[in-house]
């Protein structure tokens, strides 16, 4: 028996449009009160894919009324200089969100750079303070892709409590935060990976299957139980019939007859990532205002 409603395609483009409309409404309200949220995007080097991602982020910010600031640095930028840029952005009260586009050139320590971003402005949700806060269930900035996946699941499935969720992949960007968010939603969560024994059998237990491994069409029909909800985070470019195309980690055609709901690739999870970057920029502003209020209260408290 299916654990969720009857078969449906999970339309990430439509859901992302709704999220952006919600953000735009909130931004309009803030601007009427004399406040405009601002997002700074830092790009080091000339990586073509990164330039496309940055351009799309800046365009979405403009669409919802968020002011964007681009910092483009040459590929030979010294780490100390990049850290100096981040420190300036941390100190600027007009900047609410800071995003350093990955990957960085090989001579720069990615971890050190991400740790230099103020946790209250870390709209990617990669700072250790936010990672730890997520594990503790606190109200912190969380990675955009898993947050977007949770919105897709809630919109498609409603109540998630008690469902068995299997997450394929244990990356810091998707797998681990995805598992933590599913736990917060009272799911029973299993994380599987390349060292897990009998992956298909573990995946067949899932009411919800989230795949983020980056292997095209790894997951076939024999990995799925009838009625599963599939969230396919994988975006893989393959050559097929003489043409280049994007496919997910899941064999979509094989999964479609079995799934109660499934995300396509493209058009599923992808649009949600930038939508939640915009949402995180507003959350960052709110967390900063809360922190400022706590500081004012502490300053006026009797010693």
Automatic annotation (TrEMBL):
<keyword id="KW-0378">Hydrolase</keyword>
<keyword id="KW-0560">Oxidoreductase</keyword>
<protein>
    <submittedName>
        <fullName>Methylenetetrahydrofolate dehydrogenase (NADP+)/methenyltetrahydrofolate cyclohydrolase</fullName>
        <ecNumber>1.5.1.5</ecNumber>
        <ecNumber>3.5.4.9</ecNumber>
    </submittedName>
</protein>
